[in-house]
Design goal:
This protein is of the alpha+beta class. The chain is built from 6 helices and 6 strands; from the N terminus they run E-E-H-H-H-E-E-H-H-E-E-H. It is 45% helix and 23% strand. It has a 4-stranded mixed β-sheet with strand order 3-5-6-4. It has a two-stranded antiparallel sheet with strand order 1-2. The protein starts with a strand and ends with a helix. Bound molecules: zinc ion.
């Protein structure tokens, strides 16, 4: 799967791109909670090493990122219009590009041959959708909002014929009158890092 590394922004995979992480490193990155979809070998290796050595970056990941990610999990998002009583903080978006990749395609082809409905694409699309929604909610948090209304999710082909899909989410960031304490805390952390 060719893609763009979310850390260094360079192309990953293919003949010209940076190397993709190998399975063991990928597993370790996931176990440490530092794995990002589409990350290149070099970036994941350096993050995993720093995290392992108890580098200051680890405290950023565990102490700062976790209340923020748990706050985004708690945030309410809905396709319904913004309630009149709440404060609209503006448009927020999030997206995630996923490569369906040759392995997945092969797997789908094989399972389709045997008459089994393959869920590989669906599972990937589901994970990408979650990622896009989390990114959208993070943008909302940065605006001091604790909910997102008018949410729309789109799945589009990012590059024609290369098996790259883009999931995008958009909505209206809304500051409700009753913000949960976890969300208030996450907003404070984000404000402090500006
Ligand atoms: Zn990278």
């Amino acid at each position: 799967m060719a893609g763009i590394c979310p850390i260094c922004g360079e192309k990953v995979g293919g003949f010209t791109g940076k190397a993709e992480p190998f399975q063991r490193l990928l597993d370790e990155g996931q176990a440490l909670g530092v794995y990002k979809y589409g990350i290149c070998l070099d970036c994941l290796k350096s993050i995993v090493e720093k995290t392992r050595q108890g580098h200051p970056e680890k405290s950023i990941i565990t102490q700062e990122a976790s209340p923020i990610s748990s706050a985004t999990e708690k945030m309410f998002s809905s396709p319904s219009p913004v309630p009149a009583a709440e404060e609209d903080r503006g448009l927020v978006t999030g997206y995630c590009i996923l490569g369906t990749g040759p392995l997945t395609s092969l797997f789908s082809a094989v399972t389709d041959t045997f008459g089994m409905k393959s869920n590989a694409y669906l599972e990937k699309a589901r994970a990408a959708e979650k990622e896009a929604l989390s990114m959208m909610k993070l943008e909302a948090l940065k605006l001091g909002a604790d909910a997102v209304y008018c949410v729309r999710i789109n799945l589009t082909e990012a590059t024609s014929g290369n098996g790259m899909l883009m999931v995008s989410a958009s909505g209206a960031a809304v500051k409700t009158t009753a913000q949960a304490p976890e969300i208030v805390k996450a907003i404070e952390i984000l404000d402090g890092s500006k």
